[in-house]
Amino acid sequence: MKLTINLKENSYDVTIGKDILHLCKELFNLNRKVLIVTDDNIPSEYYQKIKEQAKDPMIVTVRNGEKSKSFETAEKILKIMLDNNFSRKDCVVAVGGGVVGDLAGFVASLYMRGIDFYNVPTTVLSQVDSSIGGKVGINFEGVKNAIGAFHQPKSVLIDISTLNSLPPRQIKNGLIEALKSGAIRDDSLFELFENDYRDMDMQTVIYKSLKVKKTIVENDEKENGERKLLNFGHTLGHGIESVCDGKLYHGECVALGMYLISDGDIKSRLKNIYEKLGIWDRIYGVYTELLETKRQEMINAIIHDKKTVKDICSAVVVEKIGNGKISQIPTEKLVELLRR
User: Fold this and answer.
1) Which entry of 33, 151, 208, 227 is annotated as an active-site residue?
2) Of the residues 185, 223, 228, 252, which is catalytic?
3) Catalytic residue among 8, 72, 113, 224
4) In whole angstroms, how far apart are CA 162 and each of 36, 85, 225?
5) Tens digit of pLDDT at every position of the chain (340 positions)
6) Which candidate in 51, 69, 135, 144 is catalytic?
7) pTM, full prediction
C-alpha cells in the first residue's frame, strides 16, 4: 500500500505494509553514511535490520520520552555527526515514535543547512500522524515544539508489524490522532471508532488517517491556513501535556483537548468513544487533579501557544463530524473552557 505526498520538489512516497523493514534498502538511499536515531525503548531488531542494509551505518540511541526533544540532545547528535565526518550527502534515519522522528528530522534540518532524512515510525501515533508533513522540532522552556522547522522526509516506511511490541495503552494513545483525522475530514474513519476498536483493521486506519493529512499538507505545506485543522484538540491538549509530568500521553492530552473544545453531540460522541477505548476514567481523573494543582501553569502554556497572536488563538472546532473549521478564539475563552 502506497501514498505519494505531492509537494513538487519535496514530494515523497509513504509505503505501508507488514514485515517490510527489509525493503529499506530499496526505498531509501542507504549507500552512504547513515545516522540511525532511535530510543532505548525500541526493540533492537528494528534498527539492526536497517543497519544491515546500510553501507556505512552508525546508531545513536536517546532516552525514551519528551525530555529527549531538547537542545542538549540535538547538540549531542550534531557533535557525533561532525566528529564522524558526516557530509551534506549523507543522511539521517529515524526509527521510533514521534519524539525520535521530530528530533532526528530537526537534526537533519540543521546539519550542513539540511541533509536527507528518512522516517521509519514504530508507534501508532507516529504512523497515523507525525510520520508525514515535515514538521520537526524540539521543546523549549516548557513549551512543546517551540523550536523547529519544516523539513520533509525523502521517504517513509510504515511497517505495522512493529506495533506488535506496543502495550495496549500506547496503541490507544496513537489511535486518538486517527480519531482526530476522522473528526476533521473523514466521518467514515470517525465512525469506525464508534464500533469496537479491536475489530478495526490497523492498516486501513493508518491509510485513511494519512490520506486526510496528505490532502491537507499538499494544500498547505507550511501551515498558513488549512493545515491548522490538524491541530484539533492540540491547543488545550498541549497545555495539559506541558504540566502533567508524564501522567498522560500525548494522544490522551489531545483527547481531552478535543473534548473540552467541543459541544453537544460532538462532545457526547467523543466521550462515548473514550469510554469504549477504556481511557475516559484515567484521563478525566488526571485532568481534574491538574485543575486543582496546576491550573495557572496550564493557562500560561495556552497563552504562549505558537498559534496565539495578540490574545487570539487559531483553534479548531468541529460542529459536524468530518467538517472541522478554524476559529479565532480569544485566549480568555479557551481558559474558560479549561474550567468547564
Assistant:
1) 227
2) 223
3) 113
4) 17, 32, 34
5) 899 999 999 999 999 999 999 999 999 999 999 999 999 999 999 999 999 999 999 999 999 988 999 999 999 999 999 999 999 999 999 999 999 999 999 999 999 999 999 999 999 999 999 999 999 999 988 777 889 999 999 999 999 999 999 999 999 999 999 999 999 999 999 999 998 777 789 999 999 999 999 999 999 998 888 999 999 999 889 889 988 988 999 999 999 999 999 999 999 999 999 999 999 999 999 999 998 898 888 888 777 665 666 678 888 999 999 999 998 888 888 878 876 5
6) 135
7) 0.89
Q: Which three cell numbers stand for residue 239?
A: 497545555
Is residue 223 annotated as a catalytic residue, yes or no?
A: yes
CA distances from 177 to 151, 253, 257, 330 (A): 21, 11, 12, 25
Helix, strand, coil % over all residues of the chain, rounded to 5: 55, 20, 25
Query: Is 213 among the residues known to form the active site?
Result: yes
d(CA 182, CA 100): 25
228 is a catalytic site residue: no
